[in-house]
Each structure stands twice: as C-alpha cells, then as structure tokens.
Predict the 3D structure of the following.
Amino acid sequence: MIMGNKKMNIIQAVLLLNMVIPILAGLFVYLTSGHQTYISEYASKIGIEMRTINYPSIIRCYGCDFLWGYSLCSGLQLFVTDGLYRHALIKVITASMLIAITMECLQRLPFISGTFDIADIFVECGAICIAAFITNLFKRRHQNEKRCIE
C-alpha cells in the first residue's frame, strides 16, 4: 500500500510540474514579448521591468496559448481521480477543450481584453491532446513498473 501511495505521489508531482512550468514559461514569454498587456502594466507598477525579447512569430503568436493549454490539461488531471483511467482522461480532455474554447470565445466580448483567433483554439486543443498523451505514457510506464515490482 505504501508503494502505491509513493507512485501516486510521483504522478501527482509530475502533473503539478506539467502544470506550473508551462504557466511560468508562458508568463515569461507574455511579459517579455514587448506587447502592452494588463500583466505587463501591473508588473511595471510594482517595479518589475522585463527586457523585451524578439521571439519568432510562431512563439509570439501561439507559444503562450500552447503552454497554457498544456498546463490546463495537466492541472485538471490532478483533480480527476477516477478509477477507470481511460474515462477520466476523456473527461479531462473534454473539459479542457471546452474551457479553452470558452476562454477564447469570451475574447469576442467588447469588455474582455484579448483578440479572438480560431488558430488559438486549434493550438490550445493540440496542446491539450499532447499533454494527455504525455501523461498517459508516463502513467502507463509507472503502472508497468509497479506490476514488475509486485
């Protein structure tokens, strides 16, 4: 039983890292891309000045969306502890995609900051699928290791 809890803690730690690292990387790109945003305005008000980095256009336009979609899927997997993994993964992918689509569509409202872009939705959905695939591989590897130990 202790070994099972240890394996679960490792998986949860990996999911947490897969959530936090992309958020921080996306925030870094967002702050250093040179665009005036609410986040960069707030950062400058509290004395944080970030040097502008000239990113390739694919990173500048879609990098943050990719990282945040990846992070969203990984983060939701921390909270879905369904015994049937395949069904839990389908729930996480569906919820992640619905959240990503909703967040992007909200940018069409005049009082919400941001620019609606259908390509952002495809990038975020692709990132969600990649995060689910990578997590699935990791969990299967650890399940196989557990079977070998027993």
